[in-house]
C-alpha cells in the first residue's frame, strides 16, 4: 500500500516537469491572401463558362455543378452564359434545371429585380423561344399553389 502511494506521488511530482519541458507552439498571426494566382478578367470568366457549358460531352452532374458555382458567386451571370447553360440543358433534355436556373437568376437579382431580371429575359427570350422554354412566371411558379386570399384587404 505504501508502494502504490509512493508511485502515485512520484508520478504527480514528475508531471509538471514534463509539461514545463514540452515545447510550445507560438501563436502565428498571419494575413491570409485569398487571391494567389493571376486575376481573371470578365471576358475570360465569361469565355471559360461558355466553353465549359458548350462542351458536347457535358453530363448532368457537370451542368448542375457549373450552375451551382455560378449561383454561389456574388454576381448575376451574363446573358451569354445563361444562353450557353440553356443550350446545355436542352442537349441533356433537362427542362427542370432550366426552370430552377431561371428562378435562381431572378433571386440573384436582389433589390434590382425590377430592372435586372427583365433585361436578362429580354436578352435570352429568342433563345428560350427557339428551345421551347417557358419562364417560371409563364408557368405560374411565381405564385404559391395553395395560397389563401388575405383577409386584411
From TrEMBL:
<dbReference type="GO" id="GO:0045277">
    <property type="term" value="C:respiratory chain complex IV"/>
</dbReference>
<dbReference type="Pfam" id="PF02284">
    <property type="entry name" value="COX5A"/>
</dbReference>
<keyword id="KW-0832">Ubl conjugation</keyword>
<keyword id="KW-0479">Metal-binding</keyword>
<keyword id="KW-0472">Membrane</keyword>
<keyword id="KW-0496">Mitochondrion</keyword>
<keyword id="KW-0408">Iron</keyword>
<comment type="similarity">
    <text>Belongs to the cytochrome c oxidase subunit 5A family.</text>
</comment>
<dbReference type="InterPro" id="IPR036545">
    <property type="entry name" value="Cyt_c_oxidase_su5A/6_sf"/>
</dbReference>
<dbReference type="InterPro" id="IPR003204">
    <property type="entry name" value="Cyt_c_oxidase_su5A/6"/>
</dbReference>
<keyword id="KW-0999">Mitochondrion inner membrane</keyword>
<comment type="function">
    <text>Component of the cytochrome c oxidase, the last enzyme in the mitochondrial electron transport chain which drives oxidative phosphorylation. The respiratory chain contains 3 multisubunit complexes succinate dehydrogenase (complex II, CII), ubiquinol-cytochrome c oxidoreductase (cytochrome b-c1 complex, complex III, CIII) and cytochrome c oxidase (complex IV, CIV), that cooperate to transfer electrons derived from NADH and succinate to molecular oxygen, creating an electrochemical gradient over the inner membrane that drives transmembrane transport and the ATP synthase.</text>
</comment>
<dbReference type="GO" id="GO:0005743">
    <property type="term" value="C:mitochondrial inner membrane"/>
</dbReference>
<keyword id="KW-0597">Phosphoprotein</keyword>
<dbReference type="GO" id="GO:0006123">
    <property type="term" value="P:mitochondrial electron transport, cytochrome c to oxygen"/>
</dbReference>
<comment type="subunit">
    <text>Component of the cytochrome c oxidase (complex IV, CIV), a multisubunit enzyme composed of a catalytic core of 3 subunits and several supernumerary subunits. The complex exists as a monomer or a dimer and forms supercomplexes (SCs) in the inner mitochondrial membrane with ubiquinol-cytochrome c oxidoreductase (cytochrome b-c1 complex, complex III, CIII).</text>
</comment>
<keyword id="KW-0349">Heme</keyword>
<protein>
    <recommendedName>
        <fullName>Cytochrome c oxidase subunit 5A, mitochondrial</fullName>
    </recommendedName>
</protein>
<comment type="pathway">
    <text>Energy metabolism; oxidative phosphorylation.</text>
</comment>
<keyword id="KW-0809">Transit peptide</keyword>
<dbReference type="GO" id="GO:0046872">
    <property type="term" value="F:metal ion binding"/>
</dbReference>
Amino acid at each position: 500500500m505504501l508502494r502504490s502511494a509512493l508511485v502515485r506521488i512520484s508520478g504527480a511530482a514528475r508531471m509538471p516537469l514534463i509539461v514545463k519541458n514540452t515545447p510550445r507552439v507560438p501563436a502565428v498571426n498571419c494575413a491570409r491572401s485569398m487571391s494567389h494566382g493571376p486575376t481573371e478578367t470578365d471576358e475570360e470568366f465569361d469565355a471559360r463558362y461558355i466553353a465549359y457549358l458548350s462542351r458536347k460531352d457535358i453530363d448532368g452532374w457537370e451542368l448542375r455543378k457549373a450552375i451551382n458555382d455560378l449561383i454561389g458567386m456574388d454576381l448575376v451571370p451574363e446573358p451569354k452564359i445563361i444562353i450557353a447553360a440553356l443550350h446545355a440543358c436542352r442537349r441533356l433534355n433537362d427542362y427542370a434545371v432550366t426552370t430552377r436556373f431561371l428562378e435562381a437568376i431572378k433571386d440573384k437579382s436582389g433589390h434590382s429585380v425590377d430592372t435586372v431580371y427583365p433585361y436578362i429575359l429580354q436578352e435570352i427570350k429568342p433563345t428560350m423561344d427557339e428551345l421551347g422554354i417557358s419562364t417560371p412566371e409563364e408557368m405560374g411558379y411565381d405564385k404559391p399553389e395553395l395560397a389563401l386570399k388575405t383577409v386584411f384587404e
